[in-house]
Amino acid sequence: MNEHVHLTAYFERIGFSGSIAPTLATLEALHALHPASIPFENLSPLIGLPVLLDQASLEQKLIHDKRGGYCYEHNMLFMRILRELDFPVTGYGARVLWGHPEGEERPVSHMVLGVDVGGATYLADVGFGSMTLTTPLRLRGGQEQETPFATYRLVGEAPSYRLEVRIGEEWKPVYAFDLIEKSEDDYAALNAATYPRFADMLVAARTEKDVRHTLRDLRLSHYGRDGGEPQRRILTSVAEIREALSETFGIALPPADLLDPALERVLANQQNQTVD
Known about the structure:
Arylamine N-acetyltransferase fold; alpha+beta; globular; 5-stranded antiparallel beta sheet; 8-stranded antiparallel beta sheet
């Protein structure tokens, strides 16, 4: 399906003004600016609104309405932008391992991109929440790759890889993926299956030049590039949550009559868990 892509509006949204030649430098610049400007967030599932993946809907929400989205929205938009710039891009499905027990069988619920540049293939992913990449990784197994916020490595060889991140002295699995191309219809089906999992939690993330901000329900965290202990606090009211979403994550919030009851639900659920 060919969908019209408005490059100028996207560039203005992320603050990009460099060369648009399909080079590694261009890919790296876009990959850094996207998660700094367009937050990861799940407010639409939380308040019961649909998550649509057609280009017009993505541009309206993520660009013009100054919202964010989750993985399919971010990486679908990024894939179309890159293709418009003449990058060869292939979409793949990934099984999320982050936060799950080792060896647990996981379904495909995430989208990643393979981007060909200068005779090499790079992994691009601007939509993985708290562990979103800030630069593309060379698609090569066994090589440690430094990024501004963490060191990653890909384990395996074509067609199957696992992305791992170094936390302290340990390597933690992030997700696994196979080099099997997914169509837009495939992603629509995966999106429909993934949507309900985001309806009962609150998540947000944004990665600026020197700090990564994350929100999981009521826990707001800020991670510096130095790898030191993050700054954390627990939000205690709807007003505090709204302020964090707006000021820290740069989200233009949905109408209060839709959002506030959902935030009240998040507060009540967390308070009940604390009591239990």
